[in-house]
């Protein structure tokens, strides 16, 4: 079996495997297959430069894959900030109280500021059914797109 693999596995097989694994990451959560695919791509590039027996190829791929996953989990992922706030905006903003810094009098929208940044921003655009003057405090009731729906306190 190993002799057959030695004769028939070429560098492009590893490149194809790597691309398939990296592409499969789109359909699987966890960001793990990506590292196995990246290791397969590295083995494919290495095989283009030097000939390596299939046993060494498999060991290198497994070792490099595990090393990349551990590197990801230990050093990169903890410092990786998820800047997407999808699914969190409603809970984080509803009920918050801010001060109006641009009135919506005569306009459909105004601008408010929170005492501390919420979801990375301390100033947000708002709309309300009532006209609200500068300096008034408002409470967030809902979110419509990127605009807060507020009511005066």
TrEMBL record:
One Pfam family per UniProt: NfeD
Membrane-crossing residues? Answer: 12-36, 42-73
Q: Where in the cell is it found?
A: Membrane
Q: Which SUPFAM superfamilies match?
A: NfeD domain-like
Species lineage, top-down? Bacteria, Pseudomonadati, Pseudomonadota, Gammaproteobacteria, Cellvibrionales
What's any one GO cellular component for it? plasma membrane
Keyword annotations: Membrane, Transmembrane, Transmembrane helix
The UniProt record lists the keyword Kinase: no
Q: Tell me the domain of life.
A: Bacteria
Principal subcellular localization: membrane
Query: Could you identify this protein by its name?
Result: NfeD family protein
> Where is the NfeD-like C-terminal domain positioned along the sequence?
91-152
Q: Does the keyword Glycoprotein apply?
A: no
What topology in the membrane does the UniProt record assign?
Multi-pass membrane protein
Provenance organism: Microbulbifer pacificus
């Amino acid at each position: 079996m190993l002799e057959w693999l030695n004769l028939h596995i070429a560098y492009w097989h590893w490149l194809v495997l790597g691309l398939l694994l990296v592409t499969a990451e789109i359909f699987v959560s966890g960001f793990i297959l990506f590292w196995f695919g990246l290791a397969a791509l590295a083995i494919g590039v290495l095989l283009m430069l030097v000939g390596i027996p299939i046993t060494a190829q498999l060991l290198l791929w497994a070792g490099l894959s595990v090393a990349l996953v551990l590197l990801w989990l230990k050093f990169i992922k903890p410092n990786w900030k998820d800047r997407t706030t999808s699914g969190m905006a409603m809970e984080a903003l509803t009920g918050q109280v801010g001060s109006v810094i641009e009135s919506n009098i005569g306009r459909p929208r105004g601008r408010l500021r929170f005492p501390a940044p919420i979801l990375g921003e301390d100033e947000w655009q708002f709309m309300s059914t009532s006209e609200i003057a500068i300096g008034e405090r408002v409470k967030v009731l809902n979110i419509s797109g990127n605009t807060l729906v507020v009511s005066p306190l």
